[in-house]
Amino acid sequence: MDPASVKRELRKSIIGKRDALSVEFRASLSSVITGKMKGLDAYRRAEIVLAYMSFGSEFGTDEFAKDVLENGKALVLPKLNGERSGLDLYLVTDLSDGLEAGAWGIREPRGGARIEDFSLIDFILVPGVAFSREGGRLGYGGGFYDRLLVNKRIDSAAVAAAYSLQVVEKVPIEENDVFVDGVITESGEYFRNREIQ
Ligand SMILES: Nc1ncnc2c1ncn2[C@@H]1O[C@H](COP(=O)(O)OP(=O)(O)O)[C@@H](O)[C@H]1O
Ligand SMILES: [Mg+2]
After folding, report:
1. Which residues is 196 bridged to in the sheet?
2. Contact status, residue 109 vs residue 77, Cβ threshold 8 Å
3. Does the CB atom of residue 139 touch ligand 1 within 6 A?
4. Low-confidence ranges of the chain (pLDDT < 70)
5. What superfamily does domain 3-186 belong to in CATH?
6. pTM for this prediction
7. Contacts of 143 (CB under 8 A, 6+ apart)
8. Any idea where the domains of the chain sit in the sequence?
């Protein structure tokens, strides 16, 4: 099978397993994972944090996003730009008022101050479907975070928060795929880069 087909199959399988978890169980796992995220050195040091608003059965990011604001850090969220098939980044100061449902019902910033310079971001919470312990990442198939992370500042931290069922032995890696620096689950932490712990 070619890598694109392997990716498709793996996406289907992992999303199926993730969808099968109850809402309550997902919430309890998300809470444990968020606690670990908050303790990461790279996060504690970060002044500008790019997060995303979770949808479906993903790790729930609400508590994390709230923590960013409560700790006086700048919260940046992505908004799909269909025209250039990329993500635009916006500063968000209020989670209850600053968001609206965008493509696929994902909550996005309404607007506001756009962050054009990706190198300003210190910590990136990276979404995805499956991860390897080495930081290999399988996304939803749009390649959006591959295109974003390729411009990452070398000393910023890109960390995925995911349920342990999303960690697999091997993720198919193609030319444009970008690795994350860390993967945090309810039962494990995997780092490529010691600095972020
Ligand atoms: N930096 C990039 N420049 C151009 N195309 C890219 C880039 N990164 C990813 N892509 C393309 O986006 C598409 C989806 O990538 P894929 O890795 O399958 O998705 P995902 O990362 O969301 O799982 C692929 O055709 C891939 O080549
Ligand atoms: Mg990819």
Report:
1. none
2. yes
3. yes
4. none
5. NagB/RpiA/CoA transferase-like (3.40.50.10420)
6. 0.97
7. 176
8. 3-186
